[in-house]
Amino acid sequence: MSVIVGDHTDAAQRITRIQRSRRRFAIDLREIWLYHELLYFLIWRDIKVRYKQTALGIGWAVLQPFVAMVLFSVVFGHLAKIHADYGVPYPLFVFAGLLPWQYFSSSLSLSSLSVVGNSALVTKVYFPRLLLPLASIAVPVIDFLCSFAILVGMFLWYGRAPHWHAILIPVFLGMALLTALGVGLWLSALNVRYRDVPYTIPFMTQIWLYATPVIYPVSLVPERFHWLIALNPMTGVVDGFRWAVLGRGVPQYTVYGVSTAVGVMLVVSGLWYFRRVERSFADVI
Amino acid sequence: MSAAIQVRGLSKEYRIGQFRGGYQTLREHLVEMGQRAVGRQRQRQSSTIWALTGVDFDVEQGEVVGIVGRNGAGKTTLLRLLSRITEPTLGYADVRGRLGSLLEVGTGFHPELSGRENIFLNGAILGMRRNEINRRFDEIVEFAGVERFLDTPVKRYSSGMYVRLAFSVAAHLEPEILIVDEVLAVGDAEFQKRCLGKMETIGSTGRTVLFVSHNMSAVARLCPRSILLDQGAVLLDGPTDDVIGRYLAGTSGSSAAREWSDSSQAPGNAHARLQSVRVIDEVGRTVDRVNTTDPVGVEIVFEMLDAEQPIVPMMSLFNAAGTLVFNALDPDSRWASPTVGIHRSRAWIPADLLNEGEHIVSVFLNTITAGRLDRHAAVPDAVSFLVADSGDGRSAKGAMAQTWGGAVSPLLDWTHDFGSIESEAGPHR
Question: In Å, how far is A10's CA from the nearest CA of chain B?
Answer without folding.
Answer: 8
